[in-house]
From TrEMBL:
Gene3D superfamilies: HIT-like (3.30.428.10). PANTHER family: HISTIDINE TRIAD HIT PROTEIN. CDD domains: PKCI_related. InterPro entries: Histidine_triad_HIT (IPR001310), HIT-like (IPR011146), HIT-like_sf (IPR036265). Transmembrane segments: none annotated. This is Histidine triad nucleotide-binding protein. GO terms for molecular function: catalytic activity. Residues 5-111 form the HIT domain. The active site is at 100 (tele-amp-histidine intermediate). Pfam families: HIT (PF01230). It comes from the Bacteria. A motif (Histidine triad motif) lies at residues 98-102.
Amino acid sequence: MNDCIFCKIVDGQIPANKVYEDENFVAFHDIHPKAKVHVLVIPKKHIPTFMDVQEEDLPLIGQLHQTIQKIANQLRIAENGFRVVNNCRDHGGQEVFHIHYHVLGGEKLPV
Ligand code: 5GP
Ligand code: ZN
């Protein structure tokens, strides 16, 4: 996974403005924010796309849901609400092939 930019962020080889980190996940500000708050939440495990999540990964994906709740509370966007987006593969507009969830908020988002 040497060429994966998000694995490099996990390993600290390239910098990121992190807002959260634990044993299994990292969250950091998107370099090109599309909302007042735009963070990317990723598992440290390299899973390329939404479609590559295996049955053995389901506990991790459940934890990811809980991690997003924690981050939303920490960033104070939970009460007013926010949006979670995963872009999957070509038609979904995925650019980085390490699964990530965009968390967008801090303002009323366009529909
Ligand atoms: P995708 O289109 O794959 O769902 O989204 C990839 C996101 O990663 C984009 O919103 C892009 O701005 C962000 N991104 C790409 N490279 C970097 C980087 O090196 N650092 C950070 N913080 N964000 C990045
Ligand atoms: Zn990766």
